[in-house]
From TrEMBL, chains A, B:
PROSITE patterns assigned: NUDIX
Lineage: Eukaryota, Fungi, Dikarya, Ascomycota, Pezizomycotina
Annotated Nudix hydrolase domain residues: 145-292
Gene Ontology molecular function, alphabetical: 8-oxo-dGDP phosphatase activity
Domain of life: Eukaryota
Stored PANTHER family: THIAMIN PYROPHOSPHOKINASE (PTHR13622), THIAMIN PYROPHOSPHOKINASE 1 (PTHR13622:SF8)
Organism: Pyronema omphalodes (strain CBS 100304) (Pyronema confluens)
Protein known as: Similar to Uncharacterized protein YJR142W acc. no. P47173
Amino acid sequence: MSPPYTYLDLVNQVDSFPNAILHPVRHAERLTALKLFTSGSHTLGYMHDPIFEVLKTTAAHERSEKGYDHWVITANTVSIKGESVEERSRNIKKTLDHWREMKTFEVCSGKGWRNELYPVYSPNGELFLEMERSAACLFGVVQYGVHMTVYVPGATTDDMRIWTPTRHATKSTYPGMLDNTVAGGISSGMTAWDTLVKEGHEEAYLEESLINEKAKCVGSVSYFYERDANAGGESGLLQPEVQYVYDMAVGENEVVPKPNDMEVENFVLMPLAEVKKNLEEGKFKPNCAFVLIDFFVRHNIITPETEADYIEICSRLHRALEFPLCRSPAAKKHVHAHHV
Amino acid sequence: MSPPYTYLDLVNQVDSFPNAILHPVRHAERLTALKLFTSGSHTLGYMHDPIFEVLKTTAAHERSEKGYDHWVITANTVSIKGESVEERSRNIKKTLDHWREMKTFEVCSGKGWRNELYPVYSPNGELFLEMERSAACLFGVVQYGVHMTVYVPGATTDDMRIWTPTRHATKSTYPGMLDNTVAGGISSGMTAWDTLVKEGHEEAYLEESLINEKAKCVGSVSYFYERDANAGGESGLLQPEVQYVYDMAVGENEVVPKPNDMEVENFVLMPLAEVKKNLEEGKFKPNCAFVLIDFFVRHNIITPETEADYIEICSRLHRALEFPLCRSPAAKKHVHAHHV
């Protein structure tokens, strides 16, 4: 596929793993080349067969050379032993540290290693284990993030401008591509809101008070991404993902996001027509394009009158994932209680 | 299930047919009790077995008594003969007219018959046939509609009020329940926008100029509904559905929707807290509750901080349906062309 891209092309690039409802045959065919990372009768993620084979070798090595035995491996499943979150997390860490040391996988070796723990949830929506972020896509577990679009509304929709950063040319993932104003992954123990505030400060130098006042969560998007070379590490790694989506409308001179670390080269207040052109030309990081398409739908920029694939796009932006998902901790029982 | 309902309860009431991704075993079990309405290798809708048996009897009667033979029926599929949209529509009409005359199914007899044609699409997104609206749920084909929320924003979100109609006590479907400000099904040959303007006038006496100026399409929601007794006709009929969703923000005294036909008893400008209470108590027509939950997500009324099932709700509001869907006629090739 080459530019110019349609909106559906851009959705397809991110939600690229076959969907069991829309393409059941392709989905089934793909599964035959995969193994399962499981907990009891539940599948937490899909693993490519070569990764599964490496894990078998590592587990044998751990048993014979290191004196521990943390994996249960069948013909087509792997699961990690442990009676608690802490024990399971400790057990998987030993294997991942070994892979890091041996440079087994590029994605979690050298500067690929993030030294950041990501949560994996069990079917009841509670934490099941924590694992090194860069290894999550080896096990194909669901990852979580936040994306915020900071924009200056115009007299008409066409006059809208969006604060758009360019990723630093030295970044290991998607160097030089355009990004959402604020975006980042949710580490274990952090809420979506904590992450938004942290990334807003780190990436765009936005004040916490401003985020508290103006950032609004307006949904979540979800997709099942097969990573390409630009993602860093091996190609084809599996990354089902949920992004909490935030909008922040600001006045023209109210906020000027500034690079605050080495993540971002610069920010420009980009006119909507230019954002569209850059989308069409494939200049946005793929999942940022995905989030912008959701923004365009909600802001009546993509409409049923102009977009033949409107219904498919609206549905694909919110893919149902076949893995256990995070349930927020602040559960309240009834609708009305939410109002408190 | 009885009140008070959570938001997820309300979603479950509307998106009630098992989802192949989230509940593959329940989905497969349900399919064993169904037959398929097909076109070639594609499934256009699911049919309950007793309906399939009636169709076999009717087709045999048509062949022996009326001299025509419009159905191809196998052990588990039915398809309608015809080389064109017109021919297929004419053929299915003969069977449906017979059922109406014989009062075979309550849903499309007597005052159930709508005398309105609904479109069924083929896998390329083009019109495949037109059929009587009230019979669509016998064949389980996808139906399309529009829902608009007309609201008066407040100083804070909590001060928002929503123009809420009560359905007339004499309506055959969901009598006396609360509804969205404007809602209606899309007939064959009508666009979503045409339908919004027509229903806005018929149901709420809104001027076309006002709708043109202020109504914004902000997405589509989709679900697979198994009809209950309140829907009119037989219970359990299958209704996969897509609703184009519109928002219209108005000033306090700018618009006063008025009943313009026998659909609506009255409109009230309902404070948000009261809308929530009525949702919790199950007083909204189920798919109107579904659309309001999407409104609540987009307007930051339901948030990840207050709703444990946030991710599931966002995904379930946009279910991927396993049937061919409408593609809008106004297709443009590239992202940038949409800007024209």
